[in-house]
Each structure stands twice: as structure tokens, then as C-alpha cells.
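Schema walk-through. Below, the input block comes first and the output block second. Nothing else is stored per chain. Lengths vary across the set, and this one has 64 residues.
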Amino acid sequence: MHFLYFDPGLGAMIIQTIIAAVAGVILFSKNLMYKIKLFLGLAKKDKDDVFDDIDIKDSDIDNN
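--- output ---
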């Protein structure tokens, strides 16, 4: 019978991989559920986009 040996480095790497995979699934599903709710009209679109308030005109670019 063969026993597996996990040194501390490998054990930490396995735990880190599991935590990263769980976090990735949670973040991906949260974004996906928001897009589905937005498509169905159950959620409102955020109006907090900072770049919508910035007005850049062609004349401003040409002067610099």
C-alpha cells in the first residue's frame, strides 16, 4: 500500500488553488446573474459611471 506525502508547500498550493477557484466562480456567477437580471428588466443599470461626466472635445485635443 502506497501512502501519499504532501509537504507544506504542496498543501498550501492546493488550498490556494481551491480558494481561488471558489472566488472565481462566485465573482463570475455574480456578474452573470446581474446581466441576466438586467436583460429581464429585474435590475436597474448603474448610473455611477465616472467617464460619462467627462466631456472632451476635438478642439481640446488639437490645442494640446
